[in-house]
UniProtKB/TrEMBL annotation, chain A:
Keyword flag Nucleotide-binding: yes
Domain ABC transporter as annotated: residue spans: 4-231
PANTHER family: ABC TRANSPORTER ATP-BINDING PROTEIN, ABC TRANSPORTER ATP-BINDING PROTEIN NATA
Lineage: Bacteria, Bacillati, Chloroflexota, Chloroflexia, Chloroflexales
Keyword annotations: ATP-binding, Nucleotide-binding, Transport
Organism: Candidatus Chloroploca asiatica
Name of the protein: Sodium ABC transporter
From TrEMBL, chain B:
InterPro entries named among the record's database cross-references: ABC-2_transporter_component (IPR051449), ABC2_TM (IPR013525)
Compartment(s) of residence: Cell membrane
Name used for this protein in its record: ABC-2 type transporter transmembrane domain-containing protein
Bilayer topology: Multi-pass membrane protein
Domain ABC-2 type transporter transmembrane: 20-378
Keyword Transmembrane helix carried by entry: yes
Pfam families: ABC2_membrane_3
The organism's taxonomic lineage, starting at the top: Bacteria, Bacillati, Chloroflexota, Chloroflexia, Chloroflexales
Molecular function terms, GO-annotated: ABC-type transporter activity
A single cellular component GO annotation: plasma membrane
Record bears the keyword Cell membrane: yes
Transmembrane segments: 20-39, 179-200, 229-251, 263-284, 304-322, 359-381
Keywords recorded for this protein, A-Z: Cell membrane, Membrane, Transmembrane, Transmembrane helix
Amino acid sequence: MDPLVIDKIAKSFATQVAVREVSFRVGPGEIFALLGPNGAGKTTTIRMALDIFKPDRGTIALFGQAPGLDALDRIGYLPEERGLYRNLNLLDCLIYLAGLKGVRTSEARRRLTLWLERFDLATHTQKKINDLSRGMQQKAQFIAALIHEPDLLIVDEPFAALDPVNTRLIKEVLREFAAQGRTVIMSTHQMHLVEELAERMVMINRGEVVLYGTVDEVRRQFAANAVLLDGHGPLAALPGVLSVEPLGDTGTLLLHLDETTAPREIFQALAAQPAYTVDRFAVALPSLDEIFVRVVEGTHLAEEVMA
Amino acid sequence: MQRTFLVARHEFLRHVLRPSFLITTLLFPLILGAVMLFMRANATTSPDELAAFTGKPLGYVDDAGVFTLPVPASLTAQVQALSDVASGVEAIQAGALQGFYHFPEDYLQGGTVVWVSEDVTGPQGQALIATLLQASLLADHPELVTQLGRPLALQLPTEDGQAELATAMAAERGMLTFVLPYAFAMVLYITIFSAASFLLQSVTEEKENRTIELVLTTIRPLALLTGKVLGLGLLGFVQVSIWLAAGMLLLKTSTGALEQAGLAVPWTAVVLALVYYLLGYLVYGSLLAGVGATVTHMREGSQLVAVLIIPCIVPLWFMTAIIDQPDSLLARGLSFFPMTAPVTMMIRVPLTTIPLWEIMLSVSVLLASAIACLWVAARLFRAGTLLAGQRLDARAIVKSLG
């Protein structure tokens, strides 16, 4: 049963269309990335999936059923707009939030002992939320999102405000989570983390899906016909190569190929050059970062042309 | 349902442990008690009580020759005629006199009287002196003197004077008819609004600190709101109970003669006060929660709250009229309008026997409006909750109710 299936949903607010038409599916046990520029409609989409808003059109299925409290109890949520009860102490606040998710106080205490220890918050349990640093508050909220051991974890910008140590910690937990067969939906602007963690992704821009598929597919889809080459020795001319561009001072070369030449043919041609030793040969895939910028700017460009 | 109670418990405990709540709840009766004690100590209207309080008589020096009649024998313990100012001062210094009034020679022309005393509390026993003076000035009209003297004579404490005592009680009952409704109305007014504004605060707080988004994935808006209403209602209930209990205790100790005179502490009024507190709180609490749902920040909310308070104040405006005629059309009308009913009823209850049907009707109206308000508040809550940053305009509100 897929944890989340979104089918052609749309949502408008008084003055603006937040989501025009969005469909995607998130399978069990995967880490799924929800990407898009600010104001693209990601948060609205998440809120509809969580039954906080009703979509104007389209359907949403959580674990095969219409969104409701039963399904929501199987979901953990880290909202983008962080918030905890500022005047409560850390432990009471987390116990209350766990209680709202149906975890009994004694059980919540037991689980919290482990999580707070792991997140290096064990010494701060009696401190007021207000007195915790932003990073600590974020970790606390992360704990609140998974204390009831949900089957689906939806995290909006989970790495914001975290230092590298804590970022690594969260990554670890997310991976563990997926390894247990649970599902993670992650919305973030940190593309390198998406490349690192996510298997599949959807990108939304202006309320519509612009990219959808596995991260690899998407990157290949955007690959220019080019290869990256590291090596030493004299490099003779290669058939089908339009130009050779050194990438900075790294010694890496970017080879632009003509349309009829496949990277494999270049590799074979290189093998036939005994004077040149290949250290690294790779198809030049664009980073998600580049793709992101290209897609978003491309949309702007298209609109300007239309106008 | 279980989560509704969890919310209720959470809200109750969170607020009941706040120092500000504890201080308000406990300090209010203390201040009230202190005020009552102070008022009693400074009461100048009943001279007998005063003389009993200080134990020293008053005097007067009559240089104007207006006191043609001697001080009645029954009052000599409290008022003494003095021959001149010097002897009065001497008596004060000797501690035999509390103070004296000096009527100068030109008193009848100028009307000025001088109070001489070492005390700082100001002129004492004015009513007593004024009555004596009136009696003297009206010496030619004895029937008028009797008339003027009567209330004074009736308030005298005598060894065996049951009749006088009863009349004195009637006078005190007169004071109570004002104090009791006023006290009930104020207690109700304050608790309803303190609990209701806690509710407003709690609703806006979750919006301001963004917890609401998380909370709404765990519980339905109506259930959440119901939990808050229950928890904070209980909070106000504790407060109103403490205040009423303290008030009753104060009333009992300060006017010990009350029960002797057959004026029982109005327990029905206390019960009704609790009932009307709950209903009034529900109506206003849900209204304020609705306000909380539509605004982004507490600041905005406070302005709307000011508007909502007005109907609650209306009965206080008409207080004198209601006290004068607790069964008038005005009083009854206000008892059936949900926003004015609680306070109006509390003014009326100690004064008159309200027919059962009136109470039933007003309770039903309140109950129905409370439920309606709560429902509307929950709908607004849903629509308003996450539009933080985006104002909820009239159209969106109407749409969300549809």
